Here is the input.
Amino acid sequence: MYLSDQEQYFKLKNEAWELYPEPKENWAEAYSLAKDFFETYLEEKDLDKAKEWLNQMIANNNNLHLMNEDVWFNVGKYYFEKGELEQALSHFKEVVKDAGLRYFEGEDPKYLELYKNSLKTQNKEMTEEMSELIDSLSEQGNEEMENENYDKAIEYFNQAFEIIPEPKYDWGASAWLYASIGDAKFCMEEYEIALDNLQQAYKIYGPENLNPFVLLRIGQCYFHLQDEKNATEFLLRAYMLEGEEIFEGAEDYFDFLKSKVKL
Here is the structure.
């Protein structure tokens, strides 16, 4: 009898499942196989079968204390596909609280969209939950910056930026996220894009709350864009706020500044 590709898939997976001795809850590898079944049935909208394998994942996790966040996220996916969005959201929030947004990566964007929409408030307030998530995403972005993974860092900074309520210019977090994106673009030598983001940060900080690092980076961008007048102006302003220390590791820019003005 000819088996379709799907039937062959399930036949091989079931044979693999039966190879695990009882109780199967004692085997970490069985969790991964149960997850394969769950995701396949969920994609096919066979929610009854998906629930059976989700229960097996839960049993394995409870017995072996594997990955609570992974289980919660998949429970959330199950409830989403079932149409029980409040239950789905409740589980997604538990995941985000402990693991940020990383479990949404590579998944259908509709799951993340549900979570993000839950953060939008009618009165445009910044909730504690939103603030904590912005901080968490920013920290992940900073870690990627330290590892020189600039594209990944920008992804995290942009995710954090999306959470800030409108109008975004009203929130201080927007300034340092613009500055962080600008810093990443500067490190990537994309000076025009870097300058655009840094200028946005500069506008939000305002004249009464100038950020020396932002002034430095703006001056450096102008330097690389061969705008010596603006480069001199912003490098000098950074120097006036922080002194020579701000040019530590950036001595070439300080030498340029000294060639233009008497310090």
In short: The domain at 128-260 is CATH 1.25.40.10 (Serine Threonine Protein Phosphatase 5, Tetratricopeptide repeat). The chain has two domains: 5-119, 128-260. The two ends are 88 Å apart (CA to CA). The CA atoms of residues 199 and 218 lie 7 Å apart.
